[in-house]
From TrEMBL:
Annotated TM spans: 74-102, 109-129, 135-157, 164-193, 213-235, 270-289, 309-332, 344-361, 373-391
Source taxon at top rank: Bacteria
Organism: Hymenobacter jeongseonensis
Record protein name field: Glycosyltransferase RgtA/B/C/D-like domain-containing protein
Keyword Repressor: no
Keyword terms: Membrane, Transmembrane, Transmembrane helix
Length: 412
């Protein structure tokens, strides 16, 4: 039987207006940052060249004439369909909007009303989203695919309707075809659903298994081709365990900057601090079960698909993504370093902020005598967080605008 979506009686009626205004602000920042055009890196040249050869020769090729194989094929196919960087810029902007709307909808279902209202604005002032959307990289579309996947998966788990299963499976199928790290998100999601098999119910185990198998299928086929047919193996020891802990510190620093006003100089100055900070932040973000009275007052308490349980699905997906990225930087040719960490972790911004807001929402579950004090504390913290995020994003938008735009012919 389909369960209704968790209706929170405290949602502001103007939630839709809040999302719409946040989208307008997000697009204004995007227009400011990308007005001169999209920027490029070495990866961008490969994407655009592959897109060009697909249009002219019907094949994805590297600049040296060999078969395109170092990255999944979906992004250059999308670039090819657009045919110009101007159209690609529109695609990036649309992907940003889809990401904001999809995560905002999840926030509306999973957060207390006042925090759900703030969530779209924190997404609109997302520096990592803005940065990856400025460059000819696959991350912008990857963000939208994962946001849509998470929203569709929640709807299916909550309501059991077939169309949401198909949508989640289709978006999951595209994730590893857009970025190899899509495997990591799917692995974390599958693990979380396996751990919750008792609450899930035996009747849903087969659909979950089918969803996972189909979602992984396309990416597996592509990587078998890329690794065994078109290229030598990329799996090799990189720089050993020092690289593992160095990358962990990079990701700890990146996530910290999303939540706190951390200076860039603190990464090298406090290099031994950031790996433990990553572990501590992940531990703090773990979604605890709400108090019984909080469940009755706000959300309907279901089994697997209650708000805190689905937040645990997201938390395990985040954990798996980070751990597998750390392993990939240690045992493969995957790029490492602070700037690559900022790029790769951008897909986690939505779930991390959602989990952080849910943690702050626990203050609302305090004893009645302390509720007024704790509520004002949350308001103060969230307000400072919002001001910090806005200032940082506006500053970065102005800096990104100064980057030289990439020319389509530069990759030919």
């Amino acid at each position: 039987m389909a369960l209704p979506l968790p209706e929170n009686l405290h949602w502001p009626r103007w939630f839709g207006w809040s999302v719409a205004l946040a989208v307008l602000v997000q697009l204004a920042l995007f227009a400011l940052a990308t007005g001169p055009g999209l920027a490029g890196t070495a990866d961008s040249g490969y994407y655009v060249h592959a897109a060009t050869t697909l249009r002219t020769a019907g094949r994805l090729l590297h600049p040296d004439g060999s078969a395109y194989r170092y990255w999944p094929p979906l992004y250059p196919v999308l670039v090819s369909l657009g045919g110009s960087l101007a159209v690609l810029r529109l695609l990036h902007g649309a992907a940003m909007v889809v990401s904001l709307v999809a995560w905002s909808r999840l926030g509306r279902w999973l957060l207390p009303g006042s925090l759900a209202l703030v969530f779209p604005w924190l997404l609109a002032f997302s520096t990592p989203w803005l940065v990856v959307s400025k460059f000819v990289w696959g991350e912008a579309v990857f963000l939208a695919l994962f946001a849509g996947y998470a929203a569709a998966l929640f709807r299916w788990l909550r309501q059991g309707q077939r169309q949401w299963w198909w949508l989640a499976t289709a978006l999951g199928f595209l994730l590893p075809l857009q970025r190899t790290a899509g495997f990591f998100l799917l692995a974390g999601t599958a693990l979380s659903l396996l751990l919750a098999r008792r609450s899930l119910g035996w009747k849903r185990l087969l659909p979950v298994a089918g969803h996972t198998w189909l979602a992984l299928l396309g990416g597996v086929v592509w990587h078998v081709y890329a690794l065994l047919v078109a290229a030598p193996s990329v799996y090799r020891l990189n720089r050993g365990w020092p690289q593992f802990f160095s990358s962990a510190a990079d990701y700890g620093f990146v996530v910290s900057r999303w939540l706190l006003p951390v200076r860039a100089a603190w990464r090298p100055e406090l290099s031994l601090l950031w790996a433990p900070v990553l572990a501590g932040l992940l531990a703090l973000l773990w979604p605890r079960a709400p108090q019984p009275e909080a469940v009755g007052a706000g959300h309907s308490g279901s089994e697997l698909v209650g708000p805190h349980r689905f937040l645990r699905v997201l938390w395990i997906a985040v954990l798996a993504f980070v751990l597998l990225l750390l392993i990939s930087t240690t045992f493969t040719r995957s790029a490492a370093g602070l700037y690559d960490a900022e790029r790769y972790a951008s897909v986690l911004f939505g779930p991390v902020v959602l989990l952080a807001l849910q943690g702050m929402g626990r203050w609302f579950e305090s004893k009645p005598g302390n509720r007024s004090w704790s509520s004002w504390l949350v308001v103060g913290i969230v307000s400072m967080w919002l001001v910090y995020s806005a200032g940082r994003t506006i500053s970065n938008a102005r800096a990104l605008r100064k980057l030289a735009p990439m020319a389509w012919t530069a990759a030919q």
